[in-house]
Every structure is written in structure tokens, then in C-alpha cells.
Amino acid sequence: MAAHYLEFERPIGELEAKIEELSKLSDTAGPGAFDAEVEALRQRATELRRQTYAHLDAWQKTQIARHPQRPHFVDYVSGLIEEFVELRGDRKFADDQAIVGGLGRFRGQPVVVIGQEKGHDTNSRIKHNFGMGRPEGFRKVVRLADLAEQFGLPMLTFVDTTAPTRAWSARSAASPRRSPARPSVA
């Protein structure tokens, strides 16, 4: 996947493109041909990144939080949680794949992990309903929280939310009694 740079990150992107170009040129020219220049550019890029991110305004911080290549729940789990075992379903209706949870070890300690997964590409976004939880997902969270309480396990939660789904079918699944009829539009 090609790197995506926000407007204020463009100078960093241009510098990284120069580093990549010089590295490729170094490979064709022979080993060590441009190592000093590449290393100097990498140090400059690191310093530029540090300066850029140290002085972000509120909107730029929002853009970073919404960055298309930011880590997702599955990335955090694979990097932080050992022996992760996903637990699926709410034991009443279905499994909401927008909410992922299970058991694992964080720094050697058993934990319950729950998070929202939006997906990285079109297929995974559709599979995970773009991270929009359904009622069965919220029941799954309650089930996992009860499990954590029952066994005295700490619970780690990762929230990356837009909003729950507003579909009429979800409203009827949320309640054991029948939901009201869909209002007519005049």
C-alpha cells in the first residue's frame, strides 16, 4: 500500500521519497555508494517528523486520529496481546464482527480484550460493518465484561467509534418485544 500523507505531512513525504529514490540508486551503483547521504536524509526526516508532530493544531490532531493508515484493533492485538483467542457471539442472536473480543495475555498477565474493528480494505470493512456495532455486538461486550468480572481479569478496551447502526432490523433485534412499525414518510 502506498503511503498516504496529509497536507501538513507533505514535506516529510517528499523527504521519504528522496530517501527511497536514493536507496534504489545506491543499490544499482553498488553497496555503500550513497549510505552517508541516505543516513543524513533519514536523520533529517526524523527531526522534521518530530518538529511537525510537536506543533499540531486541533484540526491536524483530528486528521491524524482519522488517518486512513492508522492502526486498527487487530493491529494493536497482534502487537500487544500474546495468545489471543477470539470469543464470538452474544449467545442470544448472532455475532457482530464490528466488535472483536477475547482472551489473551498482556505482559504475561491474562486479560479480556474488547475492541471495534473497522477493517483495512473494502472487503474487510464490509465484513466488519465499517466498525458500526449492532445490538448483538453490545451484548457480546456485556458477556465478555461479565466473564472478566467472574474470573477477576482486567479488561482492555479499544474504542474507534463513529456511531452504532440505525437500521430498523437492528432495533428489532435489540429488544425481545416487537419494535414499532416503521414511520411513514409523507
Describe the protein.
With 186 residues, this protein is an alpha+beta fold. The chain has 7 helices and 4 strands; from the N terminus they run H-H-H-H-E-E-E-H-H-E-H. The termini are far apart. The model has no long low-confidence stretch (mean pLDDT 83).
From the spread of the alpha carbons, the general shape counts as elongated
Largest sheet: 4 strands, mixed
Task: Please tally the β strands and state the result.
Answer: 4
The helix/strand series, from N terminus to C terminus, equals HHHHEEEHHEH
By oligomeric state, this entry counts as single chain
Can you give me a brief rundown of this structure?
With 186 residues, this protein is α+β, with helices and mostly antiparallel strands. The chain has helices at residues 10-29, 35-54, 58-65, 73-80, 122-127, 135-151, 168-174; strands at 81-86, 99-106, 109-116, 155-158. The chain has a 4-stranded mixed beta sheet with strand order 1-2-3-4.
